[in-house]
Amino acid sequence: MDILKVLSRGIKPNIKNKTQAATATAQLPSAGAVPHPQLFHDVVRDGSPRGKKRKRRRDAPDHDDTTGRDEEDDVSDVDYFAPKKPSSEAAHQNAQTDDAAPSKKRKIKLLDEDGCRQILRSHRLKFTVLSGLQQNTNANETAHHGEAAEQDKKKRRKSAETEAEKQPKKDDQKKQIHPQPLTSFQDLRHVYDVAPQLAENISAQGFRVPTEVQMGSLPLLLRPDTALKNTGSTLTGGTGGGVDFLAVAPTGSGKTITFLIPAIDGVLKRRAEQGRESDEHVLEAVIVAPTRELASQIVNEGRKLAIGTGVRVVLMRGRLRLAAEDVKGSDDAEGGEEEENGGEESSDEEESSDGEEPDAEESSKPGGFKPPARVDILVTTPKILLNFLSGGKSGPRKVLPTVRSLVLDEADVLLDPIFRKQTMGIWRACTHPDVSLSCWSATMASNIEALVTQQLEKRSKRADSAPRRPLIRLVVGLKDTAVPNITHKLIYTATEPGKLLALRQLLHPVSSADSGPPLRPPFLVFTQTIERAQALHDELKYDIPLEAGGSARIAVLHSSLPDSARSRIMARFRAGEVWVLITTDVLARGVDFAGVNGVVNYDVPTSAAAYVHRAGRTGRAGREGGVAVTFYTKDDVPFVKSVANVIAASEKQAGKDQGDQSAAVQKWLLDALPKVAKEDKRKVKVRGIESRRSGGKATITTKSSWERRKEHNRQQAIEASKRRKRQQRQQERSGGKVTGGEAGEETEWGGLDD
Ligand SMILES: Nc1ncnc2c1ncn2[C@@H]1O[C@H](COP(=O)(O)OP(=O)(O)OP(=O)(O)O)[C@@H](O)[C@H]1O
């Protein structure tokens, strides 16, 4: 009945050093799992709707989606199961192919619209123009019909709004486009003019086949004119200047390199156009992420892609000085886009700049002058950059006029009230008239899309703004569903102690044989609050036997820890030295641990989106075998339906019926769970389950409530006795006169005067 057996399975005793720990990791089941970059590959018949989805047979070549391509570009024969390890061999091979080619650019025939449509459908990629296309039509009409048309337009707008409410689907269909998909990474160089070194760096990472989000986004972001060439779309503001972009794609589907490649490529292209040397650095892209862990990870990924290009990808730090421009005047002069709900600053996901050590180049030089840091691409959490931009206590407010591209990773949380004020502040500071925006997440509520559209409209109304770019949304798969390639489990325990017991039982190999696939380390355990994470850690840490590494095998990470401790724990977890990492939602988003076998929602996630992101820490890059276990108690029953819905949708997407015995959420359960009122949803999202906040049931323990009550009474009695003794001593010291302590206030205050 203990965690030890599972945690010591297959592990040599007395692992003392890193080398041994690394060996241990290599033996973990996750180490052998291979990525399946493409999650979807349905067969699509020409002209017919996609209809019933069928998983593509891996052994059967699928010619449907290669219409018009060279044979060597046919992705259907590519080895999808190639390991992700940096592959110098792959890079070498590509380099050889490229060198052997007589001319650097091969003549590539672009797909016609039908060909694009088929591939996009087969991979469940759906593009919708959210703004741009529609506005273009209206603008032309106004010009042609003058004042009369203006009145007509008002009428039409009104009826269009009513129409849109009635038939949202039909309207959605109208605005769909089918740009060129990226079927091979080689096309990056040959069709989309990506710099050879960048193309080589992608190849060197062992990425062989683009994931769906890469397939859909990269052409549009790199060369929108080429991507839209055969679609017949004419978009407002032209497409040469680029598009604003919203991408909603499953967790672990490779969104990070999808926004990094265009950012690096943009720097290289502009550097070449302006004839700048590679050691001349201009801040051209800002990538915002909600947590320090995610920001550091993006920097690491960016640096790998930028090797040998001279592009500097830098993490924002407390004392980093950027090449910014000072602004005179108040915020209101900036256009007053402040969000009503903005300004809530406390969040477990939030970052602080405290404790940051500056890089050598960030420190003040003797003599007081501090040159701006050499940065091309800045990766930051919102608050730390906003602190710099607001100029501190006395300095002037600053803007970043050279930034051409703003990327919001986990955009839905960055534009949520928790971070909205900070994110909007950064967006406003990117004052270049042609700055592009791209937003990325696995979940994107429609209010976030509406907010982005509205803000873009406001910006375009400013006198100095360039013609408005189109805003295009890409959705991969079903919107807002968890990874379909993992196993979901929803487990009910009536009480808190029962939950702890269930966690231990789940980890035990014998009981887990009855209840489905065992949960094997390494895994993440999510709790609702920092206190609960800490308490669970205290409860579990001595469960691991010394021979298996003892308490060092289990760690806790949350936002109250200093940055240095957080980095250390992350490094140990990545190295396989820590097997069980207890955490809060601070690690729920974006963080990529390729080998995580499981996720335990010890406390139920507070929203459907939170479930998607937490569960998505396993099964990265389409790896199979991941398990997400969610416990719920009596207190959670009123709120668990949203999570159950996501699980049901994920299972459906994976082809599992709700009537299946093996389904985590069966129909009867879905019907039985109470519907959550909108207001309750909002409350739970912000505050979590009330009874789990500090005090009361915040304590995690296996003791029964009777035992806990007895313990509590005993503690109270001890406290009371100590208090009495203290008072007695004080009385003795002052010769019977009460002067201070608990009673002091009474004598000095003297009661009410009125
Ligand atoms: N084309 C590819 N082939 C194989 N693996 C890939 C490919 N592209 C990215 N990966 C790998 O997939 C993993 C997940 O990528 P990434 O962290 O970018 O996912 P994500 O979509 O940002 O997820 P999340 O929504 O959780 O933030 C990473 O380990 C990355 O190296």
TrEMBL record:
It catalyses: ATP + H2O = ADP + phosphate + H(+). CDD domains: DEADc_DDX52, SF2_C_DEAD. Its EC number is 3.6.4.13. Residues 59-69, 142-175, 705-714 have a biased composition (Basic and acidic residues). It is an enzyme of class 3 (hydrolase). SUPFAM superfamilies: P-loop containing nucleoside triphosphate hydrolases. Pfam families: DEAD, Helicase_C. It comes from the Eukaryota. InterPro entries: DDX52/Rok1_DEADc, DEAD/DEAH_box_helicase_dom, DEAD_box_RNA_helicase, Helicase_ATP-bd, Helicase_C-like, P-loop_NTPase. Residues 236-462 form the Helicase ATP-binding domain. PANTHER family: ATP-DEPENDENT RNA HELICASE RHLE-RELATED, RNA HELICASE. ATP-dependent RNA helicase involved in 40S ribosomal subunit biogenesis. Required for the processing and cleavage of 35S pre-rRNA at sites A0, A1, and A2, leading to mature 18S rRNA. Belongs to the DEAD box helicase family. DDX52/ROK1 subfamily. Interacts with the U3 snoRNA and is associated with the 90S and 40S pre-ribosomes. This is ATP-dependent RNA helicase ROK1. The lineage of its organism: Eukaryota, Fungi, Dikarya, Ascomycota, Pezizomycotina.
